[in-house]
Specification:
This protein is mainly β and 127 residues long. It is 0% helix and 46% strand.
């Protein structure tokens, strides 16, 4: 599965951005897979931000973004979104989209190694 992210950029503290991740068509549409957003700062480990299964049946959020970020999916467009509100400087990172058949349904849903497909990343800078 090929994943293409878009929507990153620079924003002031308290502002908003919406990231998009479009998956190439395969035998399993968005309605049958996990989509996830991770982020990574240089020199730090990649951390899970949010995951969504089957376009919205189940979601997970990192504690640091709960109440500020919302993950959603459009099964028809095979696209997952991450709406980021009330952005803070600590949200600055490269954001990566990931996909997998079952990873987000496991107890270790936040483990990057569980995801089989990755996008190239989109930079988010908050200042």
């Amino acid at each position: 599965v090929q994943l293409v992210e878009s929507g990153g950029g620079s924003v002031q503290v308290g502002g908003s951005l919406r990231l998009s991740c479009t998956a190439s068509r395969d035998t399993l549409g968005l309605g049958s897979k996990c989509m996830a957003w991770f982020r990574q700062d240089p020199g730090k480990e990649r951390e899970a931000v949010a995951t969504i299964y089957a376009g919205g049946v189940a979601t997970h959020y990192a504690d640091s973004v709960k109440g500020r970020f919302t993950i959603s999916g459009d099964n028809a467009e095979n696209t997952a979104y991450l709406q980021m509100d009330r952005l803070q400087p600590e949200d600055t990172a490269m954001y990566y989209c990931a996909a997998d058949r079952l990873a987000c349904l496991r107890d270790n849903w936040a483990e990057p190694r569980g995801y089989s497909s990755w996008g190239q990343g989109t930079q988010v800078t908050v200042s």
